[in-house]
Amino acid sequence: MEDESSPRDSFWQVISRLLPLRRKALTEKELQEIIEESEQDGIIREEEGEMLHSIFEFAETIVRESMVPRTDMICCAADAPLSEILEAIIESGHSRLPVYEGSADHIVGIVYAKDLLRFWGRPESEIDIGRLMRTPYFVPETKNIEELLHEFRSKRVHMAIAIDEYGGTSGLITIEDLIEEIIGDIQDEYDLEEEMLIPQEDGAVLVDGRLNIEELEEYFDLEIPRDKFDTVGGYLFHLHGGVPETGSELRDGQLLLTVVESDSRKIGKVRVCR
Questions:
Q1: pTM score > 0.70 for this model?
Q2: Which residues contact 225 (CB under 8 A, 6 or more apart)?
Q3: Which domains does the chain have, with CATH numbers?
Q4: Averaged pLDDT in 10-residue chunks for the chain of 274 residues
């Protein structure tokens, strides 16, 4: 009886086919064709093919497309008491939090949970957050994420604050975000499973404002002209000229978008239909 190779073995068989560089330099198109043929022949699974395709897209992706937007950042004020900072760390499940003075546009440091644990149980008057926090690493939101990954490795940092063209905080990006661009979402023990796109019985979909606009395009099989937005929330902000109120309806010529949840700062849930 013929032995069946494991999925891991077949995956690396394709990798070996993609790396014959000592003998011949292949074009990106040829490499993509090898991946597609391997999927069709059943050598690799669909999700493995998607991972390999994402390697090519990785070099063309910028920070703004992968970062956590400013409206979703969990931060703490530089003058916040230790108890408040620890509560934010525990509730968010993050091991690092940006520290700001005045507003999130002025990030002055990064506080690490492990640095705070040394002061557990001590009077808060003995703790100076300013001395504990570490220097933040700033990058432009238009930076290529492949370059950023190399910088993370060489500088031994795991988080960067993304800034926009005016010097304001645009968002934050971590090394986990970069890895997820290749292998997909990393679900750890602190992450909560959340559906970003939920089909409805009437053909509409309920989407999270953070959903990447490309996923909406793929679902409805259409193309949305865009410039400086990458999410559904950003698209609505662009159409409306600001954050629309809950209940607002906007039509772009292809889709009807109804705001289901929003506040003064961000768009939560949106109902989308043709």
A1: no
A2: none
A3: 7-14+26-58 (no CATH), 65-183 (3.10.580.10), 197-273 (3.30.465.10)
A4: 46 51 54 71 71 70 90 91 87 91 94 84 72 93 91 92 93 89 56 74 92 91 83 89 91 93 86 95
